[in-house]
TrEMBL record:
Gene3D superfamilies (UniProt xref): 3.40.50.970
Function: The pyruvate dehydrogenase complex catalyzes the overall conversion of pyruvate to acetyl-CoA and CO(2).
Enzyme Commission number: 1.2.4.1
Protein's name according to its UniProt entry: Pyruvate dehydrogenase E1 component subunit alpha
Keyword Oxidoreductase: yes
Gene expressing this chain: pdhA
Amino acid sequence: MTTPTNSDDDLHLSLYRNMAQIRRFEEEAARAYSQGKIGGFLHLYIGQEPIAVGACAALRPDDYVMTTYRDHGLALARGMTPRAAMAELYGKVTGCSKGLGGSMHFFDKEHNMLGGYGIVGGHIPIAVGTAFASKYRGEDRVSMVFFGEGAVSIGDFHEGMSLAALWKLPIVFVCENNEYAMGTPLSRTLSVEDVSLKALAYGMERDRFNAEHVLQVRDRLGEAIARARTQSEPTLVEIRTYRFRGHSMSDPGKYRTKEELEERKKKDVLLRSRIELEEKGHGQKLDAIDKEVEDEIADAIRFAEESPEPGPEVLEPTTYAGPFAR
C-alpha cells in the first residue's frame, strides 16, 4: 500500500467519523428494512466506505458527483444529513427527494450530489454531460462518476468514455470493483479482469489500486482530480474493494463462502483506521466520535419515523398536469 502523503491525525479522525457514520447508518437501515419500515430495494455500502469518503475529501464542494443505486454512502460523505437520508428511505416528505425516490434515487442539489441511478451504467453519459457543461461554461469544476464493475460491459460506459476522451472533459470515472457485480464473480463477467485497461482504447489516463486506507484513496483520486481540473483530461480509476453484505437486502450471498467473507472483514478499512488512531493515543476521541455518531443515527431514525408521508401537495405537481394528462 502507498503510504498516505498526509498523516494529519485530525484529518484522519474526521474521515474516520465520516466512515463510521455511513457504517452505522447502513446497519440501522438494514434493521429497519428487516422490520418492514423501508420498502423497495436497499443496496448497502458496508465495506466500501473509504472510497466515497476518500473521494469527497479530495473533491471541492462545487464539484459534481453521481453514482449508482448504492448511493447512501456517497450522499452522506458529500454532506447530506442522516435525517434527510433516512427519511427518504422511509418514504417521508422530509427526505432528500421528498420520499418519492427512495433508496436508489437520492439527490442533493445543495451538495452537488446529482443522483443515485437505478439503471446500470445509464448515469455515466449524464455525468459526462455535466463535465461538458463545466468546460463549456469555462469553469474548473470536476465531475466524478461512480459505478461497479458490472457496468463496464454496458454500452453507456463506452459511450461516456469515448466522448470524454474525444472532447477532453474534466471527469473522473471511478469503478468500485467489489468483485461480484450482482452475484457473479469477475471470472465469469469480464474477459479482462483489469478494468483500468479499458482506458487504453480511448487514449485515457488510468489508475488501479486496492482500497486499503482512506487517505490513500484521497491521494490517488486527488491525482486524477487535479488532472481533470488543470488539464481538462479524463481518467479511469479502478478501485478494488469488497462489500460485506449482499448485492441488496434480498440477496443471501450464497455465491461466496463464510470463510471468504470473514477473511475479508479482517481487512476492513474502517477497523484499520480505528486501530491506527488508537495506537496513536486517540482512544478517547474515537469513543466520543462513536457515541456522537450513534446518537446522530438514532436521531435520524426518530426523525424518519415521526415525519409525515408526502401528501397531495407533493404528489400532484410531480405527476402529469395540463392537456397531456386529460
